[in-house]
Amino acid sequence: MLNIPHSLPATPLQNQLLSELPIEDWQAVRAGFEDVQLRAGATLYEAGLEVRHVYFPTSAVVSLTSTMQSGDTAEVAVVGREGMVGICAYMGHGRSISSATVQGSGHAWKMPAAVIRQAAQQSAPLMQALLSYTQALFAQLAQTSACSRHHYLEQQLCRWLLLHLDHRPGAPMAVTQERISQLLGVRREGVTIAALKLQKAGLIRYGRGSVEVLDRRGLQARSCECYDVVRGVNDRLRQTAQAARHAHGLEAENTHADAAYLRCRVSEKDPGVALPERLQPASSR
Hints:
Elements: H1 23-29, E1 34-38, E2 43-45, E3 53-57, E4 61-67, E5 73-79, E6 99-104, E7 106-112, H2 113-122, H3 124-150, H4 153-167, H5 177-184, H6 188-200, E8 204-207, E9 210-213, H7 216-222, H8 225-247, H9 256-269
Antiparallel strand pairs: 1-7, 2-6, 3-7, 4-5, 4-6, 8-9
Helix pairs in contact: 2-3, 3-8, 4-7, 4-8, 5-6
C-alpha cells in the first residue's frame, strides 16, 4: 500500500480489485469514481433495497449483515481493500440480499451502480476481477454460515478477530462486546465469557470499546478451520491480482498513471505535501 498521508485521496492501487485493471481500463472508468470517507457505524445500504452505489474500500472495513424478523442480526461477511461492497449492483435485479455497515472508518472509491454495470460490460478485465471477487465472497458467506452452526463461540470469536485483524493489522479494534455479539448473532454474555478466557490466556487485551490482539499465533491456534479457509481464499484472490498486474505490466505499488494522478491530487489538496521519491517527477529528483 502506498505510504501517503491518510487525509489524501485513495488511489486505485489501494484497492486490490481495482489494481488488477490495465491502465487504459482504469483511465476509462476513473471519472465515474468519487473518493469518500466512510464513518464507522454508517449504513451504506439495507437488505431488500436497490443498491444505488457501490464502494471499493481502500482503508475502510465494511460488515455485511443479515437481519431476522425479530431484529437480530449476524455478520455474514467482511469486506476491505480486497473487494467491493454492493455486488448485487451488477448481478440480477440489483437489490441487496444483505445490509452493509461500516465497521472501521476509512476511505473508499464510490461509484453509481448504473455506471459499474455499464463499465463491467465494456471492460473484460473489470468484469473478470468482479467475478473473481464474487466467487471469493460467496466462499466466505458459505464458511461463515457453517461456522456459526458447527463451532463453539470461542472459536467463532477467534475467527472474527483474526479476519478483522487482517483488514486492520496492528491497530486495536474499536468495537464493543455488544457489537461483536450482534455480528456473531449470539448473547453478549457469551462473548464476555469467551473474551475473558482469551484475555486470561494472554491472547487479547480488551477494554471499554476496544480489543487488541496480543498473540496472533495463539489466537489462530484456538480458532476453527474456518479462518484458514477464508484466508486461503483471500490469499488466492491476492495472487490473482498480482498475476493480473504482472500480465498488464504494472508494478505492485506504482504505475505511471497512478503516480501522475497522485501528483495532481496532492498539489490540489496541499502543495506543501512531499511525495515519496518514487512518485516525484524525474526532473525534480
